[in-house]
Amino acid sequence: MISPVMPTYARADLAFDKGEGVYLHATDGKRYLDFGGGVAVTGLGHCHPHLIKALTGQAGRLWHCSNLYQIPEQTRLAERLVAASFADSVFFTNSGAEAVETSIKMARKFHDSQGHPERYRVVTCEGAFHGRSLATIAAGGQEKHLAGFGPVVDGFDQVAFGNLNEMRAAIGPETAAILVEPIQGEGGIRPMSLDYLKGLREIADEFGVLLMFDEVQCGIGRTAKLFAHEWAGIEPDVLAAAKALGGGFPLGACLAKEAPAAALTPGSHGSTFGGNPLAMAVGNAVLDVVLADGFLDRVDAMARRLWTRLEELIAAHPEVFAEVTGAGLMVGLKCVPENAAVVGKLAEGGLLTVAAGNNVVRLVPPLIIEDSHVDEALAIMEKACAELAAGN
Q1: CB 375 within 8 A of CB 340
Q2: Which of 270, 290, 310 is at the close of a domain?
Q3: Residue range(s) defining the domain that contains residue 368
Q4: Domain final residue, candidates 290, 318, 350
Q5: CA neighbours within 13 Å on the CB side: how many for 367?
Q6: Beta strands 121-125; 175-180: pairing state
């Protein structure tokens, strides 16, 4: 008999009833160091006092207000994101998939408004993950996500990861945009080289297509910049953000430059809950912390310390880990044994991680980790490596 909750997840036999900072407490009382971060969502850890204050304060005033009316905190959050990024305008959503959907719709609407309705196709990269809606699984192009959901939504072409020649060759008269993750998350924590990102900007400019980045997982300070593409010194035309933007509260955003944003005229797109007062209060609270002087510098310092320790771990245990990939505090460990076994062994020791594609274990801890948390995580990992090597 089917469970009351639809069986769409292969859930671990773990349940949590309390979170504090970088720790989660299970219902059996065991404490876990959370280096999964709700899959890169709890960027400021669990129950951050500034976020609690913002959410509870707003909850006592107003929960919901239709987008038919002005929402002051929404305007404030949009202005702050614009001031801190490449964008000129922002549309708020409830999730990353919705933010990517908005990006795709914007690309089509932009070219239609320019008199080119034939330009509707989007080029993506192998290994991509852009969400679970019908359009975004088509954009991701992974068979494991597409199986059973045919016919596949038309309008997407896919090329090899990191190959500029293939990308250039894929641009045709029907192409509207290029859509990539600067660092693939589900695909195995695979960073695109900075030169590749620069090359994408050049290709987009040459062919008059939009350059769109999916920074749902790698944005909001994860790489020690507000957005990962900043390391390349280039700007996209459109960007999807979510996950850590709400710190655990459902919140996504589509950021765009003026020309593509202006294509979404009144009535062309909308959301019932997107940009609601509760989400906006939390989003502003998240930016209070992430944009504070010195915060991202500290993330960079902690990331460098973690990477140094992980490289030492790999050198000591090549039978368990082959390499470390990623950027900042978005880290992937390529496994020799099956990654699910490694994730399980780490959880036994009290460290939560997340499996990713390409047999990778994903480490996406809260951005507030300290030296002691790095030391604690590595001690658990050392023990797990020894036990895995011994066949335990």
Answers
A1: no
A2: 290
A3: 16-48+293-389
A4: 290
A5: 34
A6: parallel
- Rounded distance between C-alpha atoms, residue 217 and residue 211, angstroms: 18
**Distance set, CA 177 to CA 71, 119, 202, 208, 307 (Å):** 31, 9, 13, 9, 34
- Residues 164 and 193: their CA atoms lie apart, in Å, by 11
Cα R_g (the chain), whole angstroms: 21
- Rounded Cα distance between 286 and 299, Å, is 15
Percent helix, percent strand, percent coil in the chain, to nearest 5: 40, 20, 40
Residue 180 CA to residue 161 CA, distance in Å, equals 9
331, 270: one domain: no
Alpha helices of 208-366 — where are they, by DSSP H?
A: 258-262, 277-290, 295-316, 339-348
Residues 183, 330 contacting (CB under 8 angstroms): yes
pLDDT in tens, 152-209: 999 999 999 999 999 999 999 999 999 999 999 999 999 999 999 999 999 999 999 9
Measured distance CA(48)–CA(216) in Å, rounded: 21
CB of 284 within 8 A of CB of 73?
A: yes
Asked if residue 338 and residue 255 are part of one domain, the reply reads no
C-alpha–C-alpha distance, residues 227 and 223, integer Å: 7
Same domain flag for 131 and 67: yes
- Both 68 and 44 in one domain: the answer is no
- For residue range 233-249, list pLDDT tens digits in order: 999 999 999 999 999 99
Q: Give the contacts of 268 (CB within 8 A, at least 6 positions apart).
A: 109
What is the spatial distance between Cα 248 and Cα 244, in angstroms, rounded to a whole number? 7
Residues 161 and 307 in one domain: no
197 is written with which tokens?
């990102």
Are 376 and 278 part of one and the same domain? no
Number of domains in the chain: 2
Q: Please report whether residue 3 resides in a domain.
A: no
Co-location of 158 and 282 in the same domain: yes
| Two tokens, residue 264 | 């979404």
pLDDT value for 392: 64
Bridge partner list, 175: 121
Residues 180 and 190 in one domain: yes
Write out the two tokens for 159: 């090329």
Look up the pTM and report it. Answer: 0.96
CATH number for the domain harbouring residue 316 = 3.90.1150.10
What is the predicted pLDDT for the residue at 336?
A: 97
124: exposed, middle or buried (Cβ count in 10 Å: 0-12, 13-18, 19+): buried
